[in-house]
Amino acid sequence: LGWALSGGEDYELLLTCAPGSQETLRKAVAATGTSLTFIGAVVPAERGVTLVGKDGAARPLEPAGYDHLRGA
To answer: What's phi and psi for 61, nearest 5 deg?
Structure first.
C-alpha cells in the first residue's frame, strides 16, 4: 500500500468536478475512449487526507513521497 500511495514513477491525470456531475463527466470522457475512476472528495484542509477502506474504516495519511518543489 505504501508503494501504491507514495512510490515512484507512476503518473495519472487527476481532476475535480462539481458534486453530482460525475456521471455526466464519465459519459463525456467515455466518448474519447478514456475511462474515469472516482477516488474521493475534496474536503476542508483541516480534515486532512484520509484513506477510507472497503470496510469503511478511515485512516489518516501522512504526507509521503518525493517533493519536487521543496527547496534543497
So the answer is: -110, 135
CB 34 within 8 A of CB 27: no
Look at strands 50-52 and 58-60 and give their pairing. Answer: antiparallel
pTM for the structure as a whole: 0.57
**For 28-50, how does the pLDDT look when each residue is reduced to its tens digit (9 = 90+)?**
999 999 989 888 888 898 888 89
Q: What is the dihedral of CA 47, 19, 33, 12, to 10 degrees?
A: -10
CB environment 22-33: b (16+ within 10 A), e (fewer): eeeeeeeeeeee
- How far is residue 68's CA from residue 20's CA, in Å, rounded to a whole number? 33
